């Protein structure tokens, strides 16, 4: 079997704001080709972790390694060629067309005039096809549905052609069909293109079915493992107060306590 390539690893990481840590002593490692969900209750620190991993806010302690190099030793341009981020915040560039927005993903590779090469054009075309956006490539982003816009943002991350992709709640606002569609696309990107994909979500049941690994932020142990192992160890049972909902290990989903 081929040796697994370590893409992102975190050791003793504390995250939070100011001097107040939200989560302490995080430790996990992801390899090339793995899809991983970060789950946990509202306000536990999922988005904060994602933003810290993307260097959008400082870590409080510990170390983040990308391809076994300390993240802080990478230049901004090297970081942009290694890691792309899809956030939930509304995008400022909704007046661009679908194709123009996806082309922005090529910025780390263009020269200082921003000239697009033949290779850049091929990568943009491939992203349009992979995400079935070719027919709407000339539409303005403000004319798109939430689901279409979500696909465009992920296509832009694919055009950035980084080995690691981080996404904050990529399935919010989507119906069940489109939630599954987006998560399956992410799984395909990870498995077929050997990307390492880490995303935050409240869709624990879907994540259990589709992810290779999961990080459960519970504010204490914060276990990281493959979903079956996490179920066996009972980590999902302890995630929410039992009076309301209960995890059913047989179905891998939550049931309302009536
Ligand atoms: N800019 C900020 N300054 C200080 N505290 C903040 C800031 N942004 C978020 N927080 C706090 O940090 C905590 C974690 O927020 P975060 O958005 O990471 O949680 P989350 O797990 O993603 O939650 P949700 O599931 O609701 O999206 C919350 O208590 C939040 O109020």
UniProtKB/TrEMBL annotation:
It is a peripheral membrane protein. Its main location: membrane. Keywords: ATP-binding, Cell membrane, Ion transport, Iron, Iron transport, Membrane, Nucleotide-binding, Transport. GO terms for molecular function: ATP binding; ATP hydrolysis activity. Pfam families: ABC_tran. GO terms for cellular component: plasma membrane. It is found in: Cell membrane. PANTHER family: IRON(3+)-HYDROXAMATE IMPORT ATP-BINDING PROTEIN FHUC, PETROBACTIN IMPORT ATP-BINDING PROTEIN YCLP. This is Iron-chelate-transporting ATPase.
